[in-house]
Task: structure prediction
Amino acid sequence: MPVGAAMVISSDSTGSLSARGGNNDAGIGGGSGSTGGEITIVGGTVTAIGGVSGNSWDAVGAAGIGNAGATVEISGGSVNVVGSLGVRNIVRAARNGDWDALCLVELTDAVVLDGSETVEVEVQVSESVPPYTYRYAGAGHGSAAQADANLYFHLPPGQTYSMVGGPNSYSKTVEYPVVRVDVDAADIGMGSGPGWHYDGTFFSILSNRAYAIRGTSDWVQIAVKSGVMCEIRRHGLQINLANLGEVCVFAIVSNESVAETLEGNNVFPTDPAMQACMCLQVQSCISPRIAQAV
Result:
């Protein structure tokens, strides 16, 4: 599913799709090191597993759905996604039709394991503009051998949801995830803010302004959008990606001007065994500078 291609799993879908990527490939989306296309899921039962290995642009190896640059829209269905190194639910920029940030909501013991019964579940998403109904109809992801009786919904945070249908009743409050990396004192788990965006893996700097970043993480990657001229003040930022293979902590792609001020102890270890792995990736014709070290 390369860039320029599009796939839609419609709301009428009651069957299932299982996809596993090859080396560096997304389960559904881009190939090795390539940009994925447009992926829309409105129904059905989808299981996607990223391929083994990884590269500097695909966090935790290949994504389950998406890969770098892909557009992923989920507004229905049960979507279970696993990154290539076993990290669950790695979805590049998952959004619903209104481009809200989405959080995984896992409904436990929602179906029977032998797949003999089809369940139907509806969730009213009232805080989105416009409001919509998230629907699922199917027999789930597993069998008795796989032992997965759960459903996996992707819903906007900041609302309490009542799940109607299936063998159990659910009421879940979906909060923004706490990532423990802050930009201008706001946790990036909120998904977006003035001049920045976070998709669950990549923290992207999008505007010509100053940013203050602090915190600790073992999965977040930082990228500066092409053409951006910004100032970054790092306050003891520590990002350890040493266990994730060939990934890059901080990427400056092209045509940017980045001035950095360092405060405290900033640490970015990566895997020393990966010869192609860079902590700070700067393409040619770019001149980042350290404005001040405090």
In short: Residues 6-174 form one domain.
